[in-house]
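assembly run, all chains below
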Amino acid sequence: MEHLIALVTKPDNVPIVAILFLIPYFIWLSYRQARQTDKTGVPSDAALNDKVYVWPYLCRNEFICAIIVMLVLGVWSIMIDAPLEEPSDPTKTPNPSKAPWYFLALQEMLVYFDPWIAGVVLPGLIIAGLIAIPYIDINPKGKGYYTIKERPFALAVFSFGFIILWIVLMVMGTFLRGPGWNFFAPWEAWDPHLVVPLTNVNLSYLFGIRDANTANFFGFVVVAGYFAIGPIFYLWKRNSSRFLQELGLVRYIIVSFLFLTMFALPIKIILRVALKVKYIWVSPWFNI
Amino acid sequence: MNEERKGLKEKITNSDIWRSIFRHGYEQTGRRYTLQVLQNVWLHLHPPRISRHALNFRFTWCMGGITFLMFLVTAVTGVLLMFYYRPTAEYAFHDVQYLEFDIPFGMLLRNMHRWAAHGMVISVMLHMFRVFLTGSYKKPREFNWAVGVILLLVTFFLSFTGYLLPWDQLAFWAVTVGTNMARATPVLGHEGPFAPQDITQSNDVRFALLAGTIVGPSTLLRFYILHCVAVPLLASVLMALHFWRVRKDGGISGPL
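ok done. output:
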């Protein structure tokens, strides 16, 4: 318990603790407004054309908001001192050594994927995917108001990515990852001498494949098969789904690739936790 | 009662003393309100009028504005901090100690800078979340969303480069861990897949970031320049573009 209190009250963890309250609050706030919209209908044009003067109405709001925020920041700065540890020493590695809190979701991904995927390819795809959102989301509805009914798919995918794969992994990385990046429950003290048996095996091994070349081929088939879900779904639904026709082939390829890549992370997490799978595809050049 | 108050008010505002201080009354007209915004260099970024729902805290969460405010706070406190800080391995840590223990309000200054930076990371993430939930990235705001994503990255990078500057164990190892992944960049990192033979640890992409094979004095200088000059400049340019596009794309989003 003391360990948990020490973690929660660590100055640099204040933002994470704040996020624990802020994220649920804003989810609740937006959910309530979305339900309201879905019940009473989209705000009318008249409501939109109802204009007010920026001075004094908006400027007043900005002013009040700035004062409140500066007050919070001032109190925060007076109450809690920024951390300063010992002088840097390249020969003394702390355990655990953690990246800044906002990169902990990325560091957590390193458990499940090799650095070139977790540290380079996936972050690159997150950025590319975020930029691509407005160009691949062709649903014209739900612009400028909270709603669930009019864009359930977009909301579900983004919220899953933001809340589960970014925020929750970040919080996990802060509070539940201890020495050796091992998993510790909140009530467990961080034991730097904890011995964890390395029992992870490759997926091909679970299927009884012992030969490296066959394993390589097997991994290729599994990964290619996973990404083939996209084209197969397209060919299957192409004629019956108006949505797919409107989306067009190029957009569909991008959407399905980003979607499958995103869900590769939770799939790998589940495989690791449930079946102790180390790699899905082991090749002479890279491992996935 | 009301009449009485009105009479009293008139009595005061018509008195010689009042009129000697205030030359004329405050004209409460639309023209006055419009000019107030147009003629003020700090306010003219705003349009004269906006739709009523944009005033609603529950709609905007005020997160974009808070992000900008946090940027301003870090800029001001950052400039003040630069007076006391030398970005060399010999001095950096001791300058921070000196700042904390000997400079009046030095600790408060450093706290405000650090917490405002953390606050900016939180508010920029919540801002993005809000913009997504309200579908505000949709036509015609696609490009501004892209600018926003770049600004999100810039915010992370600003915070990350600043993380190294205290030059303590926390800073050193956080940046070591954070930049280690660059080793594994495909093709461009010396431990990445498909790296050519002549990519070594002293000419790969991580070397370019660190100006060395490990985090060292030249990394400190490099991160200092990035943190204090290069990235803030980039952020300012992108913010100007971001705010300008908010107006040009028809103001803050509404059901169009």
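The longest helix of chain A spans residues 14-40.

The longest strand of chain A covers residues 51-53.

not gonna interpret more than that til we talk
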